[in-house]
Amino acid sequence: MPGPSARLRAALAASLLLAATTAAGADAAAPVSSAARPVFERSKDKLLQLRAIHNATGSQAAIGSGFVASADGLVVSNYHVVAKVALEPELYAMEFVRGDGTRGPLALLAVDVVHDLAVLRIDARGLPFLKLRDGRLRKGDRGYAMGNPHDLGLTIVEGTYNGYVEHALYPQIHFTGAINAGMSGGPAVAQDGRVFGVNVARLVGSQLVSFLVPGEFAAKLLDAAAAGGPPERFQDEVREQLVGHQATLMQRLLSTPLPVARFGRYEAPDSPGPFVRCWGRADNEATRPYEIDAKICIPEFRLFVSDELQTGDLRFSHTVLRSRSLGALRFASLLEERFGADGFDYANRKDLTGYRCRDDFVTRELGAVRAVLCVRGYKRFEGLYDMRLKVLTLDHSSEALVSTLALNGVGYESGLDFTRRYLERITWTK
Amino acid sequence: MDEVIFVEVLGRAGDVVQRHAVARLPATIGRAYDNDVILDDPYAAPHHLRLERGESGELVLVDLDSRNGLFALDPTARVARATARPDARFRVGHTQLRIRPRSYAVPAERDDVARTPWHRKPAALAGLYAAALACVLLYGFASTTERIEPLKLAMPAVWATLGLCVWASTWAFAGKALAARGNFVAHASIAMAAPVLLLVVATLGGYAAFAFSSSAVDEGTIVPIAAVLAWTLYRHLTLVSRQPRRTLAVAAFLIVVGVFSVLSLADHASQKDQLSRMAFLKEIKSPAVRLVPGASPEAFFAAAQDLKPKVDALRKAD
Fold first, then answer.
1. Which bin fits A367, alpha (ψ -120 to 50), beta or left (φ > 0)?
2. pTM of structure
3. In CATH, which of 1.10.760, 2.60.40, 2.60.120, 3.40.1000 is domain A242-428?
4. Which of residues 190-229 of B touch A (CB under 8 A)?
5. Can you give the residue ranges of every domain in chain A?
6. Over the stretch A3-15, which tens digit does the pLDDT of each residue have?
7. Model confidence over A51-69: pLDDT tens digits?
8. What would the DSSP string read from start to end of B48-100?
9. Which among A336, A357, A377 has the least Cβ separation from residue B278?
10. Which CATH class is domain A4-230?
């Protein structure tokens, strides 16, 4: 991004670096980190910056990091660093830049969308490389994450290993260290010099909460890449992995009855597992003629497919609206506002079709609800759909439950199956 | 003595600007002061036409070798002489003429809308105004889900009253210009009846759509709404134009259909860009309004299978 702000930022960054150098020089005697320097010395010739180059302009479209993981040139990084090349190989190409500034092309060999990993190849033999190990260290162990944050140059960050994330659908390491944009795909090295994790994400708005993909998954993908050639079309490979993911998720969701939680007079679906977390909220300001109790359940995971498409998750919310002094006419207006609103889903034409909906009263022994089911399809990933269910109870003229479910990137049958179970779990006492 | 003949000078809208009685034939028509009918038109010759009886007693116009000639209208054709039937129009210079005999039969008088008694009565007018205001207030009340603030609720009624005055005045001015009659009260009563009818139609449509869970009913409400608007426009037009009722009715119908078509096209075009738009029946009323039992969960989700081919078709279309 050229322009004054970029120049200002560059000047600022440079001055910060200069200040840091001076401080380090003055304080050279103090052993701030005895281990970081040798780790970096041993690793630096195996570290790479990865760039997705937009062919038409020759400029970088995405930058990340990576490391050489075998003597014959296999390189490990994140899927999200190479996503553009995987999905639009005719528009983008990958290249690497070493610490000394030398650069060259990279060929994409394998991707793992679920764990956010990719394996690429440098066309060279006899390269120095980093060895992988599994991700299990002991809580409190030191780890060293390396990469090229914000294109500032190769960097090492010392941090603390904090075990595997407890709620994850797919295991990730919780690492307390300053991983920043651009370091994605870089290695996190244990004190023994081996890679125990691959930098993948940080929690925005938190302090140093970062995540690594455990080393064993990188090793598995490396083996797969070494054994077979790249797929004919990565788009199909990505689709297959998304289909596999939704099958795993649906299997988990459908194998046990959906738990429910009480909610005043109502009962409605509760978190189906530790990978979905629910939050509650009351909105009962005294001057309002109605009051609200709301619960929203959001997933701890989401698969990155491209900058415009994150999918493979589910979320739902329940809102109980209770009239204080609205009267039946105005209460119905309130429900209409709440129920009729379109979702604010971000969607892009490249990936998704428009919605098609079905609405009706759905009647069970208990009574009737108003239900709307909307479905849209994935354009590049055939057989995957987004489903939206809205349910409004019609049991009372001054109290109602509005429930919404969003199911992203699911197969039609299993998605419909879960949607139906969800609807059937919404009940009330008279 | 010959029958009295009327030579009528017509305005652009077909209205009579001057009417000359001619007691004796043949008579001459032209700019000169020695004519029987004098035309104040610089494009007319001093002696332009002669009006006379033909062999079988019909009235005939004869061009007296004028420079600009005599034209029959509908269709326009230059003629040297022409039979002057009572509904035929002619052009001489820039002047339109029509020749009618005393025996010409006129149609029965039209109903005078402005004379229709009910809205002339102050009580009826006040009642209509009250009904229109009540509709505006009731609509505001029903759609306010936050705490009622009387002043905020009353504002739309104030705006509606102002709007009504501007609307009726505009029509009254148009009437003054085109038909020489303002008819402000009549225009105002039409303009007050319209929102009452619209609210009734739209509300009934919304309730019926929810009660029967029918998007078709919801979308179909546009027909009576368009009808109310067309009727309103028609009533206004009858007060400001002398064109036949049928012409005005067709004009009102076409204008409303045209406006609705343009709006729906624009709506359609803008919706195409809204990928996250969900099209479903959005009307929600009190549970007691529901009149149909609805589907069982099995039936609802079985019917939802239909969405798959629709979405797949969208996928293939792009």
1. left
2. 0.79
3. 3.40.1000
4. 213, 215
5. 4-230, 242-428
6. 334 433 333 333 3
7. 999 999 999 999 999 999 9
8. -EEEEE-TTS-EEEEE-S-SS-EEETTTTEEESEEE--TT--EEETTEEEEEE
9. A357
10. mainly beta
